[in-house]
Amino acid sequence: MVHQREIIMCLVLTVCSPVFGESWRASVTKNIDALVGSCVVLPCTFTHPGGGLSNSRLRGIWHRKDKWEEFFYHEDNTKILDSFKGRTKLMGRLGESNCTLEIIEVKDHDNGPFCFRVELVRKDNNQPTSEKFSFVEECAEIKMLHDPPKPKLGPLKTAIQGKPYTITCSIRHTCPSHPPKLTWTHGTVDDIIESHEDVYSGVWQTESVLSFIPEEKDDDSLLTCTATFNGNIRSNTDFRLNVKRTENYNHIIIPTVTAATTAVMFGLLCLFMTKKYK
Fold first, then answer.
1. Domains in the chain with CATH codes
2. Cys bridge to 94: 34, 58, 101, 172, which one at CB 3.0-4.6 A?
3. How far apart are CA 35 and CA 217, in angstroms?
4. How many angstroms separate the CA atoms of 76 and 91, rounded?
5. Smallest Cα–Cα separation from 42: which of 107, 109, 113, 95?
6. Cis peptide leading into residue 113 (ω within 30°)
7. How many Cβ atoms sit within 10 Å of the Cβ of residue 226?
8. Rounded Cα gap, residues 228 and 226, in angstroms
């Protein structure tokens, strides 16, 4: 019955209120991957009629699409489904139209779809008013990944002894609040530059650039980049380094110089002897 009343109320608001029908909008990433055991962030923004509203005047709720009374997130923790308690939180401020949701310790049964609802609350008692809207046409669904993605290495090229060498390790993920940490089996902290980039629709990329001067002993060594995701889940990728040695001409130069020096000294000696006995 409660479910039916909420549906009727939202339909009435949509049909009878031009402001609601035209101005309340939400934008959610509808399909996103999540690594089981790690975390995921569901990007969400919304617009509302009129001027800006303070954070205290808005209440954000995430619920099931077909069961609006089953909450994935609610500011009242006692109303959240037991299987989600302590694992969800809003990442953004509602007053800034940010309704992004974070889920940690992702379970393979974290079934959606995940839908956002916004409610206006009264200033005097913080109770919801009749102005509320569930964006059931803009819900997020999660695709569970049971195996962590492997980092990508590049460019894979031959190193030259004594000359600067650079290699990049990158990994894509969907949890910017707890991005994976990339580590190398070679180099120090000073040799590494790390960056994070928003790629598209909730997908982020963490990148680590390793720069060093290869030595002869590095030839045929194994470079390994390890990605450690939130939840201590790991994956790695290897690359066997080929170091091209600097050409060494000492075996030619030294004998040549020695022979030339001997010849010059012998020539001078002969010249000296000739002058002496002449």
1. 2-145 (2.60.40.10), 152-244 (2.60.40.10)
2. 58
3. 38
4. 16
5. 113
6. yes
7. 18
8. 6
Bond preceding residue 155 cis, omega within 30 of 0: yes
168's tokens: 């990049």
Q: Are 138 and 27 in contact (CB under 8 A)?
A: yes
Q: Tens of pLDDT along 70-128? A: 999 999 999 999 999 999 999 989 989 999 999 999 999 998 899 999 988 877 656 66
Joined together, the tokens standing for residue 177 give 């609040």
Taking only the tens place, the pLDDT of each residue in 184-218 is 999 898 999 999 999 999 999 999 999 999 999 99
Query: Rounded to whole angstroms, how far apart are CA atoms 202 and 41?
Result: 7
Using an 8 Å Cβ cutoff, are 95 and 87 in contact? no
Is residue 180 within 8 Å of 232, Cβ to Cβ?
A: no
Burial class (CB in 10 A: 0-12, 13-18, 19+), 254: exposed
CA separation for the pair 62, 171 (Å, rounded): 29
Question: Partners of 204 in the beta sheet?
Answer: 173, 198
Helix (H, G, I), strand (E, B) or coil at 48: coil
